[in-house]
TrEMBL record:
Protein name: Uncharacterized protein
Residues passing through the membrane, by range: 26-48
Superkingdom of the organism of origin: Bacteria
Organism whose genome encodes this protein: Desulfitobacterium hafniense
Keywords from the named record: Membrane, Transmembrane, Transmembrane helix
Length: 73
């Protein structure tokens, strides 16, 4: 049930936002909004399905410590 509600909400957002962007030919904004909505939908869908989503701050810590070799107290 929660997955169906999630799909309906995201579909409503898409139907409300995208036609105006297409009509005004805002192609960069259209790509950005589509990309961000896709990420949000995928993460929300994974959470609704009960799949554990990793914490994004762990990735940032890895990048700063291991890749860039920066240490902060």
């Amino acid at each position: 049930m929660s997955i169906l509600l999630l799909v309906i909400v995201f579909l409503g957002v898409v139907l409300f936002e995208l036609p105006e962007l297409i009509q005004k030919r805002y192609w960069r904004e259209l790509i950005t909004v589509t990309f961000l909505l896709s990420i949000g939908f995928i993460l929300s869908l994974l959470l609704a399905m009960g799949i554990e989503v990793p914490n994004p701050s762990n990735a940032l810590v890895y990048i700063f410590k291991e890749v860039l070799h920066l240490s902060y107290p």
